[in-house]
Amino acid sequence: MELKLTLNDASNDRLQAAAVKRTAHVESLDEAWLRILAMKNAAPDQAKLLAVRDAMAGGQLGRAPTSAGKRFSKAEALRMYKELAALQRESKLAAMVEGTPANYVLVLDEQTLANVIRDAFAESVIAVDTETTGLDVFVDVIVGVSITTPSTDRHYYIPCTPTKDERVLPADVVLAALKPLLEDAAVGKVFHNAIYDINMFKRHGIELRGLAWDTQPAMALLNENEPSFALKRLATNYLGEPSDTFAELFGKGAQFADVPLDIALVYGAKDTDITWRLYEFQRLHLAKMPKVLDYYLTVEVPLIEAVIAMERTGFDIDVKYAREYGITMQADIARLEGELHDALGGINLNSPPQLKEALERVTGQKLESTDAKRVLKPLGAKYPIIANLLKYKELTKLYSTYISVLPEKIHPVTGKLHARFNANGTVTGRFSSGGNGVNLQNQPYDARKLFVAPDGYVIVGADFKAQEIRCAANKSREPVLIDAFADGVDPYALLAAKHFKKPYDECYKNPDGSDTVERKTMKVVMLAVLYGMGSGTLSSSLKITMDEARKFLADFFVSYPAIDAWIKETQTFAKRNGYVWIGDGKRKRRLPEAKRKTTGYVPEVQRALRQGPNAQIQGESAIQTKTTLINLHRLCQERGWRLYATIHDEMLVLMPEDFTPADIAAYEAVMIDSYQFGDVPNGTDIEVARRWGEGVPVDEWFKQRKSKEAIS
DNA sequence: ATTCTGAGCCAC
DNA sequence: AAACGTGGCTCAGAAT
To answer: Which of A119-128, A156-165, A280-289, A481-490 has the lowest mean pLDDT?
Structure first.
């Protein structure tokens, strides 16, 4: 105190600051929480922090002794969250085991297994699920099978080796016992994501028969807008049965084979329990839409076998060609990169913001973006550097997305590339493709050359001629289109002739076989109409003025009033009901936004109204493709061909190279006869290739084969 | 080091 | 005046 008198004001301030600091240093835990929770935390972090605070307050969680002296920080709180999560997992698992329903039965001996199988044979439908060592259907193995027998209301989990518990039966014993049941078509089976389990059974020599229902595609019909079709999520949302995923319960890298049997029982048996309940829930709701139910049972369910066959065929990749092609591409890319860096400076050429700045500097003009098609292409003629940049972009895209990666995706066990085909991956019912990093449906021409037929086989592809336009002709009943298809006249050329007031022949093909400008233009306009394109986009894609584009669309609707009327009718229906039907009631496309009462322009509502007519066309075309694919799969089985791929309006098979004209006729018949758009006839083109993308028309192929035979 | 998002681009 | 439907993958850049 004496000392204080001797201090000047500045020292006094310092002392006070130190005192404040000291106070902060010993801040109470409550104060620390106020400080931490007031920070700008991301929403998930804030939730974690609150959970930690509550757990500490409740005494379940305490600070580590090593941290005791340190100021309580956000980082420490988040570290403690991990501890909390583990604690919660343990208590959750303990509660699950504690609450194991009495009708969940663990099967550990052959006698019980025999009884389960006897009971299952007495059922008309059962639910089945597999637990495995992983997700690779060519590598992983079954560690347990769940079965639900509904009339006895029992849910069995049958663990087997390699489950790490000596009480379990050997896998060969369990699977040999189950084989007759699983292969008997008289006992229907319900799965969630049947493709996976059927593949797993194939891996163990079991050919599943009697697939009755798959709750995953069924849910896609009941609500295509569902953000995820994961079983646990659906059970939580639709059955009021809170269900944690495998990762939530066991952590990320966990192995089911390591899960203790009491936990494995309650988790595994619950899988078929909720699958069965979801099945009953879905039947109840689909019964209210009999046409959807019929479509589901006659198309979506049988399609599963076709998709399994297609995914298993896989693709042979020409690795040598890919390597050589890659090397020349890399050289070209390096050269272009050097030139571009000289002109633009040491920027990252793949970074749109950096590129935009550099290009604005070099060209002296403001750019809207670095969009290659819209912005850069028109500038390419004026600035050679931009032409180079476009070439660079094209090459790097092709190289990094396709040429360099396809060989890396080859499966080490099968030696082939296996893409996934998701039959309900889109809201309209089209296939999507992905998984394993390979989307088979967007392979550009130059990448297709990497896909080669196996020795002794050729790739035979068939596409539907003007599939969506034929569908639109039937939906709208537009007489000009109906007549064109009935007479075998090219609809684009016919419309072009009418619009440009020129003879049909001058609007069809050029002497060299390429499309005329008139036909190309009309094709763009037709698609523009089906996609609900506005005049702005049409003007830029056709490089015409807005006024011209507006006139084009207006003329189109005046000339073809039935199309106009169908679009307006469909939109009115969507506005009133919040959905549209696809394929005469086979599917629904739910568009809740269309129903919103609004004044003025609301983007979401307008978008929903564009989606309505488009969904009818895209969706029914997909139904035609799927229906045809099922028949093609059967033809493949009969003739020893392999289903290879499908790309929306196209399907490919592998055929022995000595195929006959009769084989082609059968293929063609499947394409033409499987699904009709009313009275509009179908059309198909068939091509043969050893390398995908290098196909020749089948007539040409036979001609070439004949001349070769003549020589030898 | 992983995870997420937007821009961009491939297909029909 | 604007406003092109359905997907999946790669990369950059930011967040964690």
So the answer is: A481-490
**Cβ-based contacts (< 7 Å) between A 124-163 and strand C:** none
pLDDT digits over A640-682, tens only? Answer: 999 999 999 999 999 999 999 999 999 999 999 999 999 999 9
3-class secondary structure, A242 = coil
A626 CB contact with strand C at below 7 Å: no
Q: Which parts of A236-390 are beta strand (E)? A: 316-317
Average pLDDT in the A192-207 region?
97
Q: Which of residues 621-680 of A touch strand B (CB under 7 A)?
A: 647-650
Mean predicted lDDT score pLDDT of chain A: 90
- A419: nt with nearest C1' to CA: C8
Residue type, A223: N
d(CA A399, CA A397): 5
Closest alpha carbon to C1' of B12, residue:
A648
**Alpha-carbon radius of gyration of chain A:** 32
**Residue A647 approaches strand C within 7 Å at CB:** no
* Residues A263, A543: Cα–Cα separation, whole Å: 65
> What number is the average pLDDT over the span A601-625?
93
- Any atom of strand C under 7 A from CB of A432? yes
What b/e sequence results for A129-154 when a residue is b if at least 16 CB atoms lie within 10 Å of its CB, and e otherwise? bbbbeeeebeeebbbbbbbbbbeeeb
Q: Name the helix (H) or strand (E) containing A382.
A: none
Residue closest to sugar C1' of B10 by CA = A442
- Between CA A77 and CA A59 the distance in angstroms is 15
State which nucleotides on strand B lie below 7 Å from a protein beta carbon: 7-12
- Give the distance, in angstroms, between residue A227 CA and nucleotide C3 C1': 25
pLDDT of residue A16: 53
